Amino acid sequence: MAERLHNIPLLFLVLAAAVYGTDLPRPLFKSPLRAQDTEPAPGAAVRLQDSDPGLKRVLQFAEDRYNRGSNAMHLRRVSRLISASKQVVKGIRYSVTVELSNTQCKKSAMLRSCDFDPEPHRLKTEVCLFEVWDIPWESSSTLLKQKCEPKVDPEIEETNRILDSTEQVEEVESMKLLGQFKEFMVKYNKDYSTQEEVDRRLKIFHGNLKTAEKLQSLDQGSAEYGVTKFSDLTVEEFRSLYLNPMLSQWTQHRQMKMAPPAAQPAPDSWDWREHGAVSPVKNQGACGSCWAFSVIGNIEGQWFLKNGSLIALSEQELVDCDGLDKACRGGLPSNAYEAIEKLGGLETENDYSYTGHKQKCDFTSLKVAAYINSSVEIEKDEKEIAAYLAEHGPVSVALNAFAMQFYRRGVSHPLKIFCNPWMIDHAVLMVGYGNRNSVPFWAIKNSWGEDYGEKGYYYLYRGSNACGINKMASSASFVTSKIWFRQVGEIDLNLLSDNVTGYKAQTCGQRGSGRLRNADRESTNCKGHWKSRQ
Ligand SMILES: *[C@@H]1O[C@H](CO)[C@@H](O)[C@H](O)[C@H]1NC(C)=O
Ligand SMILES: *[C@@H]1O[C@H](CO)[C@@H](O)[C@H](O)[C@H]1NC(C)=O
Ligand SMILES: *[C@@H]1O[C@H](CO)[C@@H](O)[C@H](O)[C@H]1NC(C)=O
């Protein structure tokens, strides 16, 4: 990437001069794509010099049309001319292949004065073929064809540098697609029973890559979308196998008690993985049991903070024994907490291990390793959720997971049209938050295995209620009292702690206010505290 990018200033100069400046007597650099000095047959397509006067106008026209038709936030400009040819057909038919990249200007700005985005990863360079039919004597230009794809890897590009006909573009595209599909099949161990199935999956794979491209070009964060282990599933299949239809009725869910407001504002960042409250990433398999994983993750954290030991607890117990929910066909965290209270606790993952399908309930109270007494709902406000999380441990949340099927890494910030905040369909565990290159994020533990996203985690933009992340935050607690104490000033939480938060906050051995102060958190003296309380 970097190696190719350093060409841009030079190319940009050439193009800027060619498009907007005076004619150049000769190209500034020797183009490997320049026409040979042989005389072309009449009517045949001829390769063009960079300084061809018609080419400038055509590039400008193509750029304008491209920007008018794209949904991208920023203006995009030609960053490199790959090849160009023209053919005389009742006017001139131009065929140009160029690279277009993001400028720093929003769409409303003037195209002429926009520099390219200095951040290579934000250039989002595309290779585009434009065919323009120009009739100079009628001052008319028509865009016959526009075909764009994200710029491919340098190795692949080197061998296919000269793309000057549609067929070649298409051939390269389908070869590239096949290569990606094969790689996908090997990486994720895919095995299709018939040739028809292979063809069908390839078609779906192709469609999904297009969706991923769209998400990519419109993402407002730093996420990378593309091939994932779900790339051969239609959106509907993905939904029914991995998501949770019951969550769409979240507005009707059982009313839970509201959590007391956090005692202190949220620190700038917090990550419970650094404090031992988060078990390794699990895998729900092709079963819509995310609700169980989300709630169990929360209780593992709560139990860790109460008891001092991190124990992997059983999701299968909920799949089998929680009659309020629908096992692999979805569930609601609010129901799950209630079911756990009624059952009398949870067995460990070891004692009651995950199978990914509903079985007869095999729970025994003799093996209970953790319990809860109640649950609370957290205010639908991201700042409040952050403060609650920092104070009380990982939080069960739900969101619209459309973009997650295509997510690979980075901070995902899909446009609302891809991520309707009212259509919640997946429950996960929020374990921390912070800023990555000044993009605020939530760190979200998912239950699709470690080979999903960033080692099993999904990072979502924080601060715009993206994908409805604020809609359904909840936590188990160990408090049964119906009366919540709102902390005012310097109340001695020693007397209230069990009633207020479920765990007695202590700072390095001393009992103190409801949450560790930042200074205490950062002090190395306090590190051991989280693991060995009392
Ligand atoms: C933690 O829980 C275990 C049982 O799971 C119990 O034996 C132990 O005493 C508890 N420790 C604390 C500090 O509560
Ligand atoms: C919480 O639940 C456990 C297990 O059901 C129970 O033994 C305990 O007494 C309860 N605690 C309170 C404060 O109600
Ligand atoms: C909870 O609060 C009540 C009222 O202040 C108090 O009497 C009780 O001892 C508290 N319970 C615990 C477990 O601290």
UniProtKB/TrEMBL annotation:
GO terms for molecular function: cysteine-type endopeptidase activity; cysteine-type endopeptidase inhibitor activity. It catalyses: The recombinant enzyme cleaves synthetic substrates with Phe and Leu (better than Val) in P2, with high specificity constant (kcat/Km) comparable to that of cathepsin L. GO terms for biological process: immune system process; proteolysis. Pfam families: Cystatin, Inhibitor_I29, Peptidase_C1. GO terms for cellular component: endomembrane system; intracellular organelle lumen; lysosome. Residues 181-238 form the Cathepsin propeptide inhibitor domain. InterPro entries: Cystatin_dom (IPR000010), Cystatin_sf (IPR046350), Papain-like_cys_pep_sf (IPR038765), Pept_cys_AS (IPR000169), Pept_his_AS (IPR025660), Peptidase_C1A (IPR013128), Peptidase_C1A_C (IPR000668), Peptidase_C1A_papain-like (IPR039417). Residues 1-21 form the signal peptide. Residues 40-149 form the Cystatin domain. The keyword Translocase does not apply. CDD domains: CY (cd00042), Peptidase_C1A (cd02248). Keywords: Disulfide bond, Glycoprotein, Hydrolase, Lysosome, Protease, Signal, Thiol protease, Zymogen. Residues 266-477 form the Peptidase C1A papain C-terminal domain. It is found in: Lysosome. Its EC number is 3.4.22.41. Thiol protease which is believed to participate in intracellular degradation and turnover of proteins. Has also been implicated in tumor invasion and metastasis. Belongs to the peptidase C1 family. This is Cathepsin F. The lineage of its organism: Eukaryota, Metazoa, Chordata, Craniata, Vertebrata.
